[in-house]
Amino acid sequence: MPEDPPEPSHRPVPEPDLELGEIAPSTYYAHHDTMAAVGFLTMARRLPSLIAEALRLAWSASPRDTVSTVSLSLLGGIVTAFGLLATTGALSALLSEGPTPNRVLAALPSLALVGAAAVARALLQAGAGWAEARLGPQLERAAETRLYGLTSKVELIAYDDPEFHDALERAEGYGVNTVGVVVSSAVDVVTSLVGIAAAAGVLGVLHPVLLPLLPLAVLPDAWAAIRAARQRYTTVNGLVPARRRKYIISRLLADRDCAAEVRAFTMRAFLLRVYDRVARAEQEEMLKLVRRQTLTRLTGQALGGLGSALVYVALGVLLAVGAIPLAVAGTAVLAIRSAQSSLSGLLFTTNTLYEQGLYFTDFLRFCADAEGRLVPPRPRPAPEGFDRIAADDLTFTYPGAEEPALRGVSVEIKRGEIVAFVGENGSGKTTLSKILAGLYEPDTGTVHWDDTDLREVDPEALRARTAVIAQDHTRWPLTARYNITMGTDKGEQALHSAATVAGADEVIAGLPHGYRTLLDRRFKDGHELSGGQWQRIAVARGFHRDADLLICDEPTAALDARAEHALFERISGHADGRTVLLITHRLASVRLADRIYVLEHGKVVEQGDHDALMARGGLYADLYGLQAAAYR
Ligand SMILES: Nc1ncnc2c1ncn2[C@@H]1O[C@H](COP(=O)(O)OP(=O)(O)OP(=O)(O)O)[C@@H](O)[C@H]1O
């Protein structure tokens, strides 16, 4: 354990508290339970379908390399069998009667065959290895392209569905990485099976009585390997919660985000103690496992030795009674050894294939589910613009939510207007704006751009006509330029004017490489911005887009007073002729709106301009009065 720092004398460090609650299960260990419980036969039964799925995927990534991998591996097995049979010829000649030079001469053709088989096998194995290695990166790319093609295309609402999230986490966190391993394990399983079949075939050809000797020699090893693997799974599965807890604590000790607080609150000694307790417990379990596995392997080896002894005795008896010649017995020993090595390969790869196959299946299931979440093709093109947007009687409930976020909402936005949504937290403003932007589909009700029903329009095309300055905008790990243009370069003039409107020009002027500065500290020469500076960039992004409808969701929450004032001035100047939908809690700023909708619990409870709403003396007047009082 690392040495503890001296405790501060003025305050005792509390005892490490391990009562941190249950650790939630993790994607990375999603199938450990299954692996600890499942038997070898269950694994073996699942093999054919797993091998078929893996080969189908491999075929889609590269038919040529798939065929090469499989055919060269199979040929390698056949050549091995051929080499073993040629050995019998060589041994027969060498062990026959007569002077040694004559016996060697007689053995030469068979020896040449044995040599040729060895060379051919080596070449075939190298070829298979090469094709398999080529397949790996192609598979990885195919799987990732498929995954990310789907994640970026599914309906946005999928991201609010916990089941989609879980499935995505499993597919992305682990499933996609297993594709290559599953395919290579599938090929290895087939190769090992061919190796065993070849050895068994050779024994059968040499003498049928030799066949029953094979299980005698190979089963003890097989038993030990399977048992040791089970022991490891059971232990590691039991350790999953401890390992996750250790990982969480290790992040507190090593992550940048908490580095300052770890020091400010002198947390080091406390955290190290908690870490050490968990790590020690884990170490104890691992040492116990090592002891148990060693015992199992010793038993397996002892039984294996016994099995081999029995094989030799049986061979001796067969030789003594003249059932088989010496050359055949010699080849049988070689064939049994070859089967043993194929079997240990088979056990290892079966285990790997089954385990990785569980995660691989997660990947396949996710892709199938995501396909079902794609927006079906829509008949009408997106409207060129609008004179009036009308939302009628919208209701919307988030997946899994008990209460609807919107209940029977109707709003109207005319071209060139500034319309504001106000209301307390959680009243439904952002949800409504996302439906108007075509990001969510309402459960019931309609949105029309003039006479076009948005349900008939491709949402992607519609989104090209709207710009959203989001409340929780993304801090893209790109240059300042790309953070504003988002890859749609409209020239320097458009870039500078959008940046100026948002006050982002001042931010960019202060960056070491101006617009070319990377806004992410994880990259070399990357730069970090403050919350308000980021918001200015996000606002510039919205203004840069050629959109008929500009949705500003809390665009000034992080801005200083001067920047906020400048932005609202700009919006009140009708943002270069755009229609603006403004969501804000700063009610002084919505005075400029042509119409204000006040939302409460997912319903529009008031609407009108500022003066009308103040005169009404309802929720808006209450909220406005509260804010105004704070400045008096
Ligand atoms: N992704 C989501 N999944 C489930 N419920 C959600 C989700 N997003 C919002 N909600 C719920 O929907 C309701 C409306 O949320 P919305 O974000 O539209 O409110 P808002 O008026 O924009 O709030 P705020 O002023 O805090 O931004 C809230 O009750 C909220 O808890």
Automatic annotation (TrEMBL):
Transmembrane segments: 72-94, 106-124, 309-336
Keyword Ribonucleoprotein included in the entry's annotation: no
Domain ABC transmembrane type-1: 72-355
SMART domains: AAA
PROSITE patterns reported for this sequence: ABC_TM1F, ABC_TRANSPORTER_1, ABC_TRANSPORTER_2
Annotated ranges, domain ABC transporter: 389-626
Subcellular location(s) per record: Cell membrane
Record's keyword terms, sorted: ATP-binding, Membrane, Nucleotide-binding, Transmembrane, Transmembrane helix
Membrane-topology descriptor: Multi-pass membrane protein
GO function term, MF aspect, one: ATP binding
Protein name: ABC transporter ATP-binding protein
Lineage, uppermost ranks: Bacteria, Bacillati, Actinomycetota, Actinomycetes, Streptosporangiales
